[in-house]
Structures are given as C-alpha cells and as structure tokens.
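Changelog-adjacent note: as of this version, every example in the card shows the full chain rather than a window. The one below runs 424 residues end to end.
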Amino acid sequence: MNTFYQKRRKCILAFLLDKYPTGTGVNYCNSTWDDFSCWPRSIAGTFSIIPCPHGLDGVDSTKNASRYCDVNGFWANKSNYDDCLSASVGKHNITGLPPESPGVRIIYNVGFIVTTIALLAALIIFLYFRSLRCLRNVIHCHLIVTFILRNIIWVILHNVILELYETEYEWFCKVIVTIYNYLHGTNFFWMFVEGLYLFTIIVWAYSADKIRIGYYVIIGWGIPIISAIIWAFVKAYLDDDYCWLPADSQTHFDYILHVPILFVLVSNIFFLSAIIWVLITKLKASHNLETRQYRKAVKATIILFPLLGVTYVLFLMPPSDDPVVGSVFKYANALLQSFQGLFVAVFYCFLNGEVQAVLRKKFSNFQESRSIITRYTKTSYVSSPYRSSFHNHSTAPGSNGKSNGDRGKRFSEDSREEEAENML
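Full-length structure tokens:
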C-alpha cells in the first residue's frame, strides 16, 4: 500500500511539473493517474506505452499497457490493460469488480437465480389469493419486487453488460449500474417501510385503514432515486471511469449511496426497539387474533432485519488486506448477498400462517373438485343412452327420485363453493 501511495504522489508531482512545458508549439497530454498506473507526459496524437502495474492478482507485470493521447492533448477515457491479464483471469479483474474468481461468480449467479425463482413464487401467491391482499402483504410485495428486479439487473450486468465497458456503448453500462444502485437502495427503504408500518400500528396505535399506501410508495420508490441521480451526476463529472463500477477501494463519492442506507438501518433499529418494548409491556397479557398477527409480523421483521442490515454493514469493506481473509470475505459476502431475497420469501410468505392456511384450503378444494368430477363421470356413464330404458323405470316418483334430486342439489352447492374459492 505504501508503494501504491508513493507512485500516486510521484504522479501528482509530475502533473504539477507538466504545467511548465519545456517546448512550445507542441500539444501534450499531462501526466495523469488512473487508479493503477501513472501515465507520463506524452506528445499529442501518440500512444503512451508503460509496463503493467505490479502487485495485482492475475496481472503479468512483464507486459505493457497503452493509452492514447489524442491530437488535442487529452487522454482517452480508458487505459488498455488487456495484455496485462493472464489467460486464466477475466478482463474485469483489473477493475476490482466482484466476483473475481469462478467460484464466487458461480455462487452469485446460482444464488440470485434460485432466490429470484422463490421470490416470484411468493409474489404469485400474494397476488393470486384475494384474501391475502391486506396492507401488510402489499408492503411485502413491494419489497419482493425490489429484490426480483435487483437480482435480474445484477445477473444481466455481470454476465452481459460488462462486455460494453470499453466500447462506444459504455454509457449503457453506466445506466445499468445506476439502475442497480437505485434498486439496491429500494431494498433498504422498503425494509424501512416494513419497520415504519409496524411502528405506526403498534406504537402509535393507528388503524391500518387510516394508512395510505401512496405515502409508503413515495418513501420506498421515490427517495432512493434522489440519491441515485445525485451519485450519477457526481460520477459523471468527477469520477467518470470504469463504467462507474466499484474498485477495490471505494471512493468517498460512494457515500452518497451508503449514507441514506445507514440512516435506514439506524431508523429500523429504533423502530424495532420501540415495537419490542410495547409488545413486552402492554400486549403480553393479550391473546386476541390481531395481537398474535402483530407478534408474528414483528418476529419475521426482527429475523430479517439483521440478515439484511448486518450483511450490508459487515461487508461494506474488507476487514484486512490478508489474502486468506479477503478470500473468506468474498465467499461469505457472495453467499449472504445472493440469498438475502430467499430469506424474505421464506419468512414473509412460505412460513406465514395465513399463506399456509390458504394454500391448504386451495389444495383441499382441488382434491374435492377432482373427486366430484370423478363421481360425475361415473354418473354420466350409468345414465348413458344404452341404459336409458332401465333408468326410466327405476327413477319413478318415490324415494329413489328424491335421492337423485338431493345428490344433484349437493353437486350444485359443491360447484358454487369451488367457483367461489377460485375467485380468491
């Protein structure tokens, strides 16, 4: 690290000296630092060739990197380090992008794909059954949607879009990165809404009917877009490099995204502390259905909040420069980050008592409907035209006719019940 900062200081000193050119009438590109190497002062309209940087994993320091100095005396936006990378390392490694190893990349892709499938199943359940469409589950749906969108954008970004980071379509890569950062922020702001909703109905004792979902939508979807836009403008004008992707050491500009999320985490700690206090002191002796539902919701939120919040705080930056610690850090981060949404689907949907009851009822009605169809098919066979003469004599007015009428009545009632269940 000392060598890194020494090179940077020398490059800055060279840049200051370049302000006083020794020649006249010739355009130059001044010395500049690109986070990896110091590019010396070069004549306009030429390529500057320097050795590849030392001390980076997967980089062959015996080869050369290049950067073009245009005829107007301005450096190209990107330095060409393609020849510096060894054959076993992808070109994204020079940017410090996670994941860097095939194992970590597989964990991220598998985790995000499995999580997205589980989240889609949970979202379909919440949307299909009308009996589950309360304000609390609507908030769950918004949180689930943020995870689905974020996961999809991540997979697309790291498997397709990154190929554009040194092409004329690099602007599209920057747009996708900005969208990803926005969706990452919405994850936490909808967790903030989860905590705010429980705080409102339990601590402030507001009725859920008085709460407007529109206000929550503004908080969950609206506020993160402000920080994402500000961050994009700052990156465009002050740090327009490497498709706006995070390097090994994040710059102070990234705190534009981090600070609002840290505020959300602190706020949710306050919300959950107040909620737990109220449940312990005031609702301990109450055993009505509404109180039990609140307790279940609080329990799910308490379980999920550490999973979401702690992972973000602990993995904000590596704990040390040790290679072994860094490797463990990357694998642990990959597991927790990629499977976060799966915990949301499990605790808010699959382990939800209301959801389980609705699914059991739906499955029971499905079995009954199949049984009714089977009985109806058998009855149709018995009353077929080939046996009409027999049935015309056996269905004379009397007890048998009454029995058939009762069976038809029960069948119509079962059909109405099945239709009503399908409308849920």
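Structural remarks: The first strand starts at residue 28 and ends at 29.
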